[in-house]
Predict the structure.
Amino acid sequence: MLDILRTHIVRLFFVDFGMDIKEIQDKLAKFAEERDWDQFHSPKNLVMALTSEVGELNDLFQWLTEEQSKNSDTDEIRQELADIFIYLLRLADKLDIDIEDAVREKIEINAKKYPVDLAKGNAIKYNKR
Amino acid sequence: MLDILRTHIVRLFFVDFGMDIKEIQDKLAKFAEERDWDQFHSPKNLVMALTSEVGELNDLFQWLTEEQSKNSDTDEIRQELADIFIYLLRLADKLDIDIEDAVREKIEINAKKYPVDLAKGNAIKYNKR
Amino acid sequence: MLDILRTHIVRLFFVDFGMDIKEIQDKLAKFAEERDWDQFHSPKNLVMALTSEVGELNDLFQWLTEEQSKNSDTDEIRQELADIFIYLLRLADKLDIDIEDAVREKIEINAKKYPVDLAKGNAIKYNKR
Amino acid sequence: MLDILRTHIVRLFFVDFGMDIKEIQDKLAKFAEERDWDQFHSPKNLVMALTSEVGELNDLFQWLTEEQSKNSDTDEIRQELADIFIYLLRLADKLDIDIEDAVREKIEINAKKYPVDLAKGNAIKYNKR
């Protein structure tokens, strides 16, 4: 009963609740399967595909100054971010890694690694070089 | 009234609704602000930081065969995916790009670019070289 | 006879004549062979190794301003450039590509692609975005 | 007198002596200067340009098996290697780093880091993960 209610509420409120990672991953899996592309999507290959998209992002930013880069939400950049996201989600799916959990954990790790007072006072991370 | 109800429902059901991208982005923004790191986070710099993490991912996969790569959900790889995700979300936030919208749009674009029958029959994308 | 003369002259004048790419490639090949690493050095894997080193280079430059980057000939950066060069030469060797010829040809191609007056007047390449 | 002799010998024997890195760097510097592109060539920007080219190389290799990658000396790959080399030489020039010296030193460092018997017996580097 509660489950049914939940499903309905999900449908009603979905748009407000952020992205459903799993839903997108399923969509991408179906997309690849329908095209017989699964054979190409080993994690190793997906890392290279991700890298290739990040290379394109570098291409879009390479000659911009930092200031110019702040106002560069072009459609090309938007699509590039999407491509990177798509390959990242696909890779996590193939490796059975829960990317949401991983992100939450990593934020905890970073908080311990860079405590506010130390990080602020010394900015170790950014000044080490 | 409906808003209050929604907020409560969000709290109750959050775990079922997938990731709240915006919430994570806000957490990351606060994290940077508290440490005075915002000055370093120009989109151009964030692209390089993202690239650096993707480089580390390559390091973890470079000597693995495709087969070996299929069983490599180590903690190191898990953390690497999280790092990439974090910089990607931060970058999208700084550029005011709605990454969820961008991903949904890109999937539509890809569906038109690679129609099932054409992609399956010819596998153009993968055979062009 | 001429060959012997040439060999002697090479030895005498080597230092003036720049790098002997082939000699370095042979050294790298021997290095890998002695350690039984040849099995790992498929071109695909070497591309990932090269990428990983370029990622480290990004790490060293990511938070620097353009100005700061102009005075950053640290030993770390020096070693990183060497690593990239080493994997590039190894990759070219494995693919039987004459990297010197390729570079000279590419400079010719670029000269035609970006004629001085056009490139200078309009700076197409840098302004296209 | 000896200098004149050397110059003549260089001309006569150049083709046998490998690449003159400095000569190529000068050519690239002149190329940029003539087009007024020097303003864009900060080391930071050149790192991104190098990264972008390495991304394209990943694009060319991403769906190939390791076996297929061994027979892939296409003109596209050849040009990509040249592009990477060009940006690497340009970057080294801008940073006043002698890339030849750096490479020779790095090979020494690696020889100490991975002594033959240890590296061969245990293959530490490749098995650590």
In short: Chain B touches chain A through 76 residues (CB under 8 Å). The first helix of chain B runs from residue 2 to 13. Confidence is low (pLDDT under 50) at residues 13-17 of chain B.
